[in-house]
Amino acid sequence: MYVDADPAGLFPIARAERSWLEAIEDGSVRVYGEPVLVHALPTWFFAIEPAIPTTLSPGPAPAIA
Fold it and tell me: Whole-model pTM?
């Protein structure tokens, strides 16, 4: 099986921001090979949490003297 994509096409899939099906349908990712493997591809990967949070929780308010 072959996956033809650049990092910009794969990154949103890895971050669970879009599905394999969406990426394949819009052409940003192309998959070739044995149909059984092609259909199984989405089950081989799990979404990951970013190592660095993308949002910060509010901290304590600064003290005003």
Answer: 0.62
Of 18, 60, 59, 56, whose CA–CA distance to 5 is shortest? 18
Q: What span, in angstroms and rounded, lies between the C-alpha atoms of 46 and 12?
A: 12
Q: Is the dihedral of CA 23, 45, 38, 30 positive or negative?
A: positive
Residue 13 neighbours by CB distance under 10 Å? 20
Q: Which amino acid is at 39?
A: H
Structural domain count of the chain? 1
How long a stretch of residues is the chain?
65
Predicted local distance difference test score (pLDDT) of residue 48: 63
Residue 63 included in any domain? no
